[in-house]
Amino acid sequence: METLITIFIEKLGLEKRHFEKFSNEMYTKIVKKKEHLIIEGSVCKFIGVVTSGTLRSYIRNNGEEFNNDFYLENSFVSAYTSYLTQMPTNCNIQALTDVEINYITYNQLNKLIAEDSDFLKLGKYISDNYFIRKCKRETSFLKNTASERLENLSTIFPGIEQQVSQYHIASYLGIKPESLSRIKLLTYIKK
């Protein structure tokens, strides 16, 4: 919750009363390892903050799973396109470890915004955060080699290699696990 307080006060310029009002509307959810927070075809009605644990977002296509995002401690978690449109999502969010999330519902956040337009700053911050992450990932696939994408991964997700299996990291990078092993070996030899 300290991270959320910092976002409210230092990044958004809101007051402690805003954070208190927001946190009074929040719920806590525990998701056990391998359970899903949300599944494809459902409508996402929440935005959460991961207080502990790690999740992955993935899309299924032709029987295969493709990781498209990770959510580590202190990050926002949501099937955000579904949240914004209130239409069914095409992604799944699964816990890779036991996870605790503090979340607020779509209706609750909109109620707060209707009561105090300062809460729009939070909505913009979350939207900007998602947009920038998605743009960086898309650009990385268009401009960078798999080796460069791996190098950038630790900048985007500090400590991820200690929290997520190589299989899931390879999927996120758009390569096979054996290619990831080869890239890591070549990087190690060069050093």
Automatic annotation (TrEMBL):
SUPFAM superfamilies: cAMP-binding domain-like
Record InterPro entries: cNMP-bd_dom (IPR000595), cNMP-bd_dom_sf (IPR018490), RmlC-like_jellyroll (IPR014710)
Gene3D superfamilies given in the database record: Jelly Rolls (2.60.120.10)
Top-rank lineage group of the source organism: Bacteria
Domain Cyclic nucleotide-binding: 31-116
Residues spanning the membrane: none
Any Pfam family the entry gives: cNMP_binding
Protein name in UniProt: Cyclic nucleotide-binding protein
Organism encoding this protein: Chryseobacterium luteum
